[in-house]
Amino acid sequence: MDSKLDEAKVLIEKYLEKWVTPLGLGWWKIDIVYYDDPGEIVKNFTSEDSDYLVLAKVFAKWQYMKATIRINLPAWVDLDEEDVEKDILHELCHILVNEMREDDILHEERVVSTLQRAFMWVIDAGRDEGMEAVK
């Protein structure tokens, strides 16, 4: 595998490890599937509401506490570390709210984006206050 893809994968896994337990997802079975084949990426990561490719897709079976996160690995290569963390947190938030999904994902996208920002603000505020638990 390409070294840039390997580096992206290491960062993704770093932030999955950081956030799964604090979000209360530690008892979930979460599988991560990485894609780097261009044909598979187009097939699996085309946005539902337009023709652009998304970074990842989450499929949750909330009733069984199981989820799969499909990662469009090449799309993560040029992200800086802060964006990787934010995007992983965003995807994990999909697991938290998935059982509330209705007709489409649009409302859920706004909700998880708001949650991601809120969680990051809490972490940043804790760092500013010198709180050991959020460092």
How would you explain this protein's 3D organization?
This protein has 135 residues and is α+β, with helices and mostly antiparallel strands. It has a single domain, classed as Collagenase (Catalytic Domain), CATH 3.40.390. The protein is built from four helices and three strands; from the N terminus they run H-E-H-E-E-H-H. The chain has helices at residues 3-20, 38-45, 81-97, 106-129, and strands spanning 29-35, 56-61, 66-72. Strands 1-3-2 form a three-stranded mixed beta sheet. Strand 2 and strand 3 (66-72) form a beta hairpin. Helix 1 (3-20) packs across helix 3 and helix 3 (81-97) packs across helix 4. The longest helix has 24 residues, at 106-129. It is globular, with a radius of gyration of 15 Å. The model has no long low-confidence stretch (mean pLDDT 88).
Write the layout of secondary structure elements.
Blueprint: H1 3-20, E1 29-35, H2 38-45, E2 56-61, E3 66-72, H3 81-97, H4 106-129
Parallel strand pairs: 1-3
Antiparallel strand pairs: 2-3
Helix pairs in contact: 1-3, 3-4
